[in-house]
Amino acid sequence: MECIEAILTRRSCRKFKSQEVESEKIKTMLECAIFSPSPANKQPWDFIVATNPDYNHLLKEASDEAKKKLVERSGWKWMPKFKIDFITEAPVLIVVIGDPTRNGAEQFLDVPSQGYQQACSAAIQNMLLAAHSQGLSTLWLSLFEKSDVRRIFNISQDKDPIAIICVGYPDVIGDAPPRKGLETKVTYLD
Amino acid sequence: MECIEAILTRRSCRKFKSQEVESEKIKTMLECAIFSPSPANKQPWDFIVATNPDYNHLLKEASDEAKKKLVERSGWKWMPKFKIDFITEAPVLIVVIGDPTRNGAEQFLDVPSQGYQQACSAAIQNMLLAAHSQGLSTLWLSLFEKSDVRRIFNISQDKDPIAIICVGYPDVIGDAPPRKGLETKVTYLD
């Protein structure tokens, strides 16, 4: 699939088929992940690929708990209706783990930025696009307490589980949520 | 350009031609930026496109100052030799500005993550790929104090200037920095 077309047609997926995902396609996603840029080439990422459904169930329990809290704390009216069954359904989960010690020189600024988080997010976007261009769909999940994900996937305390990518063949593909136009988002200085 | 090929062949560029960049290509980059996913579709990004060389010079000054500090504080031996003339040379600068108030529900977790930063980083990666697939090259710059960038580009205190993307036609394209192999980065749980 052409690159710009892939970027513009990628959608988040909340309803996966049970169809198995070829391991070669997951490997391509991961190769694309590690080809994202990182500050000082620190490559501050690790990945866990979970295909045993036990992990989906444990994660779903943790996300249900997190959701309960967030419904209460956010007061957002759409949240109680937000279904997260896709967590159980996705045939593959990819846990993206950042290493907070692997930042670039920006860590020494007066106001440091967290390059490792930015690099991991770029790696995630590469994976979402690589999935889409291979006919797969994804959901970038951050509805969990990091402590739960550390426990479930046996991740050490010094690592930062940034997101979990749910991967599978799409059963339903929704419309793109509306975007605010560029005219409201871009200022030109020329 | 095919999507996975674009991901695997994109390189950071540190030597740009003076050749002008077509505004349509920049617009395509920005359209790709806003088609990245964001938590709860909050679209927590704004962009400044600067093509007046005055901005390059002001930014270069600020980055030189930042670099001096980082050479001293990091002790990293390669840093003094790290040339940042590309900041002056890049025909286009795109400032990516995050809005820390526009996070998704993850802001209400016990240990909140900063969804706006992750979304902006995904938007940046989309731009880098869209640039590359149109024959342009880029450099993801975070070598600046945010206060300087706020001053130079007139950005309010409540917004977070996350990165500046230097854009232009490449004069020199370096090799890809070596990546650690997947076997050191991926754990399979099946």
Looking at this protein, list some descriptive labels.
homodimer; 190 residues; alpha+beta; NADH Oxidase; four-stranded antiparallel beta sheet; 7 helices; globular
Give a written overview of the molecule.
Two copies of one chain form a homodimer. By secondary structure, chain A is an alpha+beta fold. The first copy, chain A, has a single domain, classed as NADH Oxidase, CATH 3.40.109. Chain A has helices spanning 3-9, 23-34, 53-74, 86-89, 115-133, 146-153, 182-185, and strands spanning 45-50, 92-98, 137-141, 160-168, 186-189. Chain A has a four-stranded antiparallel sheet with strand order 1-2-4-3, sandwiched between helices. In chain A, α3 runs antiparallel to α6 (146-153). The first copy, chain A, starts with a helix and ends with a strand. At the A-B interface, α1, α2, β1, α3 and α5 of A face α1, α2, β1, α3 and α5 of B.
Write the layout of secondary structure elements.
The structure is a homodimer of 190-residue chains.
Chain A: H1 3-9, H2 23-34, E1 45-50, H3 53-74, H4 86-89, E2 92-98, H5 115-133, E3 137-141, H6 146-153, E4 160-168, H7 182-185, E5 186-189
Antiparallel strand pairs in A: 1-2, 2-4, 3-4
Helix pairs in contact in A: 2-5, 3-6
Shape estimate of chain A: globular
Domain count of chain A: the total is 1
Give the CATH superfamily of chain A. Answer: NADH Oxidase
Number of helices of chain A: 7
Q: Beta-strand percentage of chain A?
A: 15-25%
H/E series of chain A, N to C? Answer: HHEHHEHEHEHE
- Low-pLDDT stretches of chain A: none
**Largest protein interface, residues of each chain:** A-B, 85 and 85 residues
Q: What Rg of chain A, in angstroms, do the CA atoms define?
A: 17 Å
Structural class computed from helices and strand pairing of chain A: alpha+beta
Into which percent range does the helicity of residues of chain A fall?
40-55%
Report strand order across the widest sheet of chain A. Answer: 1-2-4-3
Could you tell me how far the N terminus lies from the C terminus of chain A, measured between alpha carbons in angstroms?
A: 35 Å
CATH architecture of chain A: 3-Layer(aba) Sandwich
For the sheet with most strands of chain A, the description reads: 4 strands, antiparallel
Quaternary arrangement of the chains shown?
A: homodimer
